[in-house]
Amino acid sequence: MFDDFFIRALMAGIGIAIVTGPLGCLVIWRRLSYFGDTLSHSALLGVTLAYAFSINISVSVFIISGIVALLLLSLQKKTKLAGDSLLGLLAHSSLAIGLVLIGFLSSIRFDLMGLLFGDILAVTIGDILIIWLGGLIILGILFFIWKSIFAATVNYDLAAAEGMKPDVSNFIFTLLLAGVIAISIKMIGALLITGLLLIPAATARSLSSNPLQMVIISTLTGITAVIIGLFSSLEFNSASGPSIIVAALVLFILSLIPFKRIGALQK
User: Fold this and answer.
1) Per-residue pLDDT tens over the stretch 250-267
2) Backbone dihedral region of 54: left (phi > 0), alpha (psi from -120 to 50 degrees) or beta?
3) Distance between CA 252 and CA 111 in Å, rounded?
4) Of 3, 120, 106, which is closest to residue 48 (Cα–Cα)?
5) Superfamily name with CATH number, domain 4-190
6) What pLDDT sits at residue 259?
7) Rg (Cα) of the chain, in Å, rounded?
8) N- to C-terminal Cα distance for the chain?
9) DSSP string covering 11-58, please?
């Protein structure tokens, strides 16, 4: 039998993978990988403020990530800078501010490695509840706006002409990204959550022939990566968060192998 901490880690990781599966597909389709990276970097500032003011980490991270998303939308309208330049500015600025604040809060002990790379083996029942309840809310909202956000991804002008309000859907989608980062920051870490968003979705893109298949395969790939990563972490005494991302990477590499071509050559 596995210890309780390992079962809790599995439940937390699988919950996160179920949420990041469809969101990761949208990030890939909309080419927003750097945006997700920006929000994950800003999460460190949210964690720092949570420790400083003794508030819930997930709530603090969601607020800060949401503010960063709003800043991006505002700066895009007020400046002439390209989107990638603004993302870089916000990502590194928020990360630097978070690290500076950590230096000032000398009276509070920080596990910096845990903040950056997560510690899924230390999750509690409360963390699992946050992940599953928060994840269900995120998936419910995503299901409600899916038609609009998908239409805007394919053709923004057509979606607007049909009255689907793509701007509203885009704004909600950015908040959903902030939400998934908020519920998973403690488990995966600020620097690795984007990997769990992108790599399973990238794997699914190589194996799927339609959007629904890609969402399903992305979710299953994420769950598989969590299971393999956690068992590998237990077996080899490696860091759990990075082990999950490495497992996802291995699955991505395997998805690139042309199995049909190999079978044809064997015949």
Assistant:
1) 999 999 887 554 444 444
2) left
3) 31
4) 106
5) ABC transporter involved in vitamin B12 uptake, BtuC (1.10.3470.10)
6) 58
7) 19
8) 44
9) HHHHHHHHHHHHHHHHHHHTT-HHHHHHHHHHHHHHHHHHHHHT--HH
Tell which residue, 228, 267, 231, 219, has the closest CA to residue 249: 228
Contacts of 251 (CB under 8 A, 6+ apart): 199, 200, 203, 221, 224, 225, 228
| Three-state secondary-structure class, residue 209 | coil
pTM: 0.82
- Closest of 33, 12, 29, 13 to residue 198, by C-alpha: 33
Q: Which sequence spans correspond to the domains of the chain?
A: 4-190
| Integer Cα distance of 78 and 251 in angstroms | 42
3-state secondary structure of 244: helix
Q: What is the Cα–Cα distance from 252 to 202, expressed in whole angstroms?
A: 7
> Tokens at residue 253, please?
């590499």
Counting every residue written for the chain, the total comes to 267
Q: Cα dist. 248→157, 193, 204, 238 in Å?
A: 35, 12, 11, 15
Segment 63-114, tens digit of pLDDT? 888 888 788 777 777 777 766 677 778 877 887 887 787 777 766 665 666 6
